[in-house]
Write a structure and sequence with these properties.
alpha+beta, Phage tail protein beta-alpha-beta fold, eight-stranded antiparallel beta sheet, 32% helix
Length: 315
C-alpha cells in the first residue's frame, strides 16, 4: 500500500527535495490518497506507542478458559479506548501528518513566524498555520493549508509582472494591492483586506463567484455554500494576534474555541451546538491563556472538564 510506504519512509531519514515533490504530487492526485496517508500515519504511531508501552494489552493474552461475551466486549472496548488515546497523544506530540508532508512553512501551537518569500513578499504565520509555495512563470501562488496568515505581497512591477495569488479552501485571493489576511473557517476561509484591495474568487456549480474587497472589508466563502456577504471588520482587532493579543467582541463561542485551539496543544471541545453559538467578549494575551477558559466559563455560566493536557470539554 503506497500510503504505508510513504509513512514508513517519513519515519526514516529526512526526505530529499525530489522525494518531497513526489509525495506532495501523490497526495494531490486524489483526495483518497490524503485520507489513506493520514490513516496510515495514525496507525503507525499507535503501533509504535503500543510497542514501547503496551499498557493494558499485557493482560489481554489468550485465556484457556472460555471468556464470556460480556467480558470480551469489555476487553475490546478497553483496546479501542487505548488506541483512541494513543492516536490523540501522537497527534498532540507530532501534529497533523498531512501538514508535515505538504507544508513548506508551518508553525506549532502558540508560535508566530515571519517568512520572506523569493519575490520579497512578507508572510506572517499565526499559530498552528501552514502554507506551501507554488511559484511558477505565470503567477506567484501560495497554497494556504491551515490556521491564519497575514500576507504583505510584493507589488507587481515591470520586473515582477506575475500576480500574487493565495489558494485556500477551493477559492483564490489575488492581491490588487498588498496586505490581507486569510483565516481558516471550518471547511471554508475568511479573507480580510488590510491595505489596498484584494479580489476573492470561487468556482461554485460551474460558475465563477467573485468580489473585490477594500480595506476593512471581509468575506467568508465555503465550497458548499459559495461566497458570503461582505461585512466590515475592525482591522486592528482582527490582526491583534500579530501583536500578541486576542480580542473578541461578541464573537461566537465556536469561533473563540477554534482560535484558542491554535494556541494550545490540547483541544477544547464544545458539546452543544447551541452553546457554540453563544457570544463571548474578552481580551487575552496570547503568551498566557491559562485563565481564558475560566473567564469564558464564568462569563457564560457554563461548566468545563479537562483531561490534561489532551482535552477540555465545555458544556
Amino acid at each position: 500500500m503506497r500510503a504505508a510506504e510513504w509513512v514508513a519512509r517519513l519515519e526514516g531519514s529526512a526526505l530529499s527535495e525530489d522525494e518531497r515533490i513526489a509525495l506532495r504530487s501523490w497526495l494531490e492526485e486524489d483526495p483518497d490518497h490524503r485520507a489513506a496517508f493520514e490513516e496510515a500515519g495514525s496507525t503507525w504511531r499507535e503501533l509504535s506507542l503500543l510497542r514501547h508501552d503496551p499498557g493494558p494489552l499485557r493482560d489481554l493474552r489468550p485465556a484457556r478458559r472460555r471468556v464470556s461475551p460480556t467480558r470480551r466486549a469489555v476487553r475490546i472496548g478497553a483496546v479501542i479506548g487505548l488506541l483512541v488515546l494513543a492516536a490523540g497523544v501522537a497527534r498532540y506530540q507530532l501534529g497533523d501528518p498531512w501538514l508535515l508532508a505538504a507544508a513548506d512553512y508551518r508553525t506549532a501551537p502558540g508560535e508566530l513566524r515571519t517568512v520572506t518569500l523569493a519575490d520579497g513578499s512578507l508572510v506572517e504565520l499565526g499559530p498552528s498555520s501552514a502554507i506551501a509555495i507554488a511559484f511558477d512563470d505565470a503567477e506567484r501562488r501560495v497554497k494556504f493549508l491551515a490556521g491564519e496568515v497575514f500576507f504583505a505581497a510584493a507589488p507587481r512591477t515591470d520586473r515582477e509582472p506575475r500576480p500574487f495569488v493565495v489558494e485556500a479552501a477551493g477559492g483564490t485571493t489575488t492581491a490588487l494591492g498588498t496586505q490581507f489576511v486569510v483565516e481558516e473557517a471550518g471547511d471554508g476561509a475568511d479573507v480580510l483586506a488590510v491595505e489596498h484591495r484584494v479580489e476573492v474568487a470561487l468556482q461554485q456549480n460551474g460558475e465563477r463567484q467573485g468580489v473585490v474587497l477594500s480595506p476593512g472589508q471581509e468575506v467568508r466563502y465555503t465550497p458548499g455554500y459559495g461566497m458570503g456577504q461582505v461585512r466590515m471588520r475592525d482591522v486592528e482587532t482582527a490582526t491583534a494576534w500579530r501583536r500578541g493579543m486576542l480580542v473578541f467582541n461578541g464573537a461566537s463561542l465556536g469561533h473563540v474555541v477554534e482560535t484558542l485551539n491554535r494556541y494550545r496543544r490540547g483541544r477544547i471541545v464544545i458539546l452543544d451546538d447551541r452553546l457554540a453559538r453563544r457570544r463571548v467578549s474578552g481580551v487575552f494575551a496570547t503568551n498566557d491563556l491559562r485563565d481564558a477558559i475560566e473567564t469564558i466559563t464564568s462569563e457564560l455560566g457554563i461548566g468545563s472538564r479537562s483531561i490534561y493536557p489532551l482535552i477540555t470539554v465545555l458544556y
